[in-house]
Amino acid sequence: LAKTTQPISMDSYEGQEVNITCSHNNIATNDYITWYQQFPSQGPRFIIQGYKTKVTNEVASLFIPADRKSSTLSLPRVSLSDTAVYYCLVGDDLSSNTGKLIFGQGTTLQVKP
Amino acid sequence: DGGITQSPKYLFRKEGQNVTLSCEQNLNHDAMYWYRQDPGQGLRLIYYSQIVNDFQKGDIAEGYSVSREKKESFPLTVTSAQKNPTAFYLCASSPTSGGTDTQYFGPGTRLTVL
What we know:
The complex is a heterodimer of chains A (about 110) and B (about 110). Helix content of chain A is about 0%, strand content about 45%. With about 110 residues, chain A is mainly β. In chain A, strand 5 and strand 6 form a beta hairpin. Chain B is mostly beta strands and about 110 residues long. The termini of chain B are far apart.
């Protein structure tokens, strides 16, 4: 299973763009990169998923370089409600078919007014 | 209103008692999961089920048991053998057990052992 490394915490201010980078040096060929968001005392929520280059949805963008050894979650113009823990996960190799997700400690983003 | 529900939201247990946490989904998902989260930590997988009448141990299955008799239900029993059961328990489901399938999480059950 590919291990991920991301910063433990980040601070930002309202209206700023926030970029959270995740390292996954031993990502496998079939692995996808997925980001989840978790608010206190709630279950994680899917944000975005990608395989390579750039993916964008209504919430965030995900940038993945050609070597796929890292990825960056970009949150445009954050607000106080974006204060949460953000998890970067690399999915199991599809051939293993367990759907097992490895959640690290995540990055705690604190947005200040 | 589709989704995944857990009950109760808060649960208190005396030492030596078994307790069962409920998890129900009406998303018609094949796969279901149980995670445990301790303060300031990520989620750890307890058990998962890829299909009805089948389940597999996760990373921290000791002291826990599950059943999957119906597609929509995946209850977790925390037994007295679990040494430190106080934690936040999260149930999730996904369409299949493929590594790229999005997992949908319930609201969680906070278990406290008195």
